[in-house]
Design brief:
With 357 residues, the chain is α+β, with helices and mostly antiparallel strands. It has helices at 43-51, 93-103, 108-121, 137-149, 167-184, 195-201, 219-224, 229-234; strands at 5-14, 17-27, 32-36, 58-63, 66-67, 78-81, 155-159, 187-192, 204-209, 212-217, 239-247, 250-253, 258-260, 270-275, 281-284, 294-306, 310-316, 321-327, 340-346, 351-354. The strands form 4 sheets. Strands 6-7-8-3-9-10 form a 6-stranded mixed β-sheet, sandwiched between helices. A 5-stranded antiparallel β-sheet has the order 13-12-11-14-20. Strands 15-19-16-17-18 form a 5-stranded antiparallel β-sheet, with no helix packed on it. The radius of gyration is 25 Å and the shape is elongated.
Length: 357
């Protein structure tokens, strides 16, 4: 199948600033694809180049096989939903949704019919005559979605569309957006700095930083097998423990503890051991812990955070502090600040990433 979007060696410069640095990216037809990264990483600039709001300094940009890198936005089979929605305040819901159709010369009756279909699709039936000021934030976002989709774009671009919503509504809209995309089968390209949004909704995610594309993969790929230290730290929460490669199957932690770990890095190379808090175990220093295969470290509990179904412990070891998540701990078995504890993990909980701090 022809990809929905292809970027080949795309770079964007603003004077001396390289906003997007020579990225290659392929987005499949019908895919919900997220571009994730901190502010200034280049994700919005990339989206704007796909939209035609910015042109690449160099490289190829194709939509369904057609080169569009120098085409105006209205010449591309895409539409964009922005964070501020950009609704016309003097128009009601129906007229906001049908505006693009009327601009294309579609007759009023047909434009109204198509608008009603989209209004129903985004669950706003009965609100057609309301102005944007009479709608909640979530309802305004649905109007913006309907207006973007009524022209039947092949690719829908979404630039932080949930950023203005409160947490509960944002979580509800995540589910609605994913359901809408599945029903329509349209490729969605979703820009966000919120990892939860990206992990919850996306088929695949591109992680960017400083204009560079660091890793593209499923949520599981990024969480379980991060390509580097930045991705490991940015996706979810992890403990990054500095280490040095001893050989292809062993690394040494900063305190000299040797840990089994497969790596292709040369002996003496600085790496980091990524350990998710939920993949580690914790117990009192007097408790029995697994023998063969587990790495054990002793430390002192410095912080205890109650999370409802789990407890998050911060433990100071001689060379690092680590976070360990313990689920369903009975009150009588919980550790307290100042307790001496043993932290341990099995070999299959580890993931080695290149690079020192």
């Amino acid at each position: 199948m022809t990809p929905a979007v292809e970027l080949g060696g795309v770079t964007k410069r603003f004077d001396e600033v390289v906003a997007v640095d020579n990225i290659d990216l392929t987005i499949a037809d019908g895919e919900f694809f997220a571009m994730l990264g901190p502010s200034g990483c280049g994700k919005t600039t990339t989206l704007r180049m796909i939209a035609g709001l910015e042109f690449p300094t160099q490289g190829s940009l194709r939509i369904f096989g057609d080169e569009v890198g120098t085409l105006a936005p209205n010449k591309r089979p895409v539409n964009t939903v922005f964070q501020n929605y950009a609704l016309f305040p003097h128009l009601n819901v129906r007229d906001n949704v049908s505006f693009g159709l009327r601009m294309q010369g579609l007759n009023k009756a047909e434009a109204a019919r198509r608008a009603e279909e989209l209004i129903d699709l985004v669950q706003l039936s009965g609100m057609e005559k309301r102005k944007p000021s009479q709608l909640s934030g979530g309802q305004q976002q649905r109007v913006a979605l309907a207006r973007a989709l009524v022209n039947e774009p092949k690719v829908l671009l979404l630039d932080e569309p949930l950023g203005a919503l409160d947490l509960k509504l944002r979580q509800e809209m995540q589910t609605e957006l994913k359901g809408l995309q599945r029903n329509l089968g349209v490729s969605f390209v979703f820009v966000t700095h919120d990892q939860e949004e990206a992990l919850t909704m996306s088929d695949r995610i591109a992680v960017m930083d400083e204009g560079r594309l660091l890793q593209v993969g499923t949520a599981e790929d990024l969480y379980e097998r991060p390509a580097n230290r930045f991705v490991a730290d940015f996706i979810g929460h992890t403990n990054l423990i500095d280490a040095t490669v001893v050989d292809s199957s062993t690394i040494a932690l900063a305190n000299g503890t040797r840990v089994a770990g497969t790596t292709s890095e040369a002996a003496g190379t600085a790496v980091a051991l990524s350990l998710r808090p939920e993949s580690m175990q914790i117990g009192r220093s007097t408790d029995a812990v697994p023998g063969d295969g587990a790495t054990r470290l002793s430390g002192t509990v410095t912080e205890v955070t109650y999370l409802g179904l789990a407890i998050m412990y911060k433990v100071a070891i001689d060379f690092i502090e680590v976070d360990v998540r313990a689920d369903a701990v009975p009150p009588d078995d919980r550790l307290a600040v100042g307790d001496t504890a043993t932290v341990w993990w099995e070999h299959d909980a580890e993931w080695i990433v290149p690079g020192a701090q």
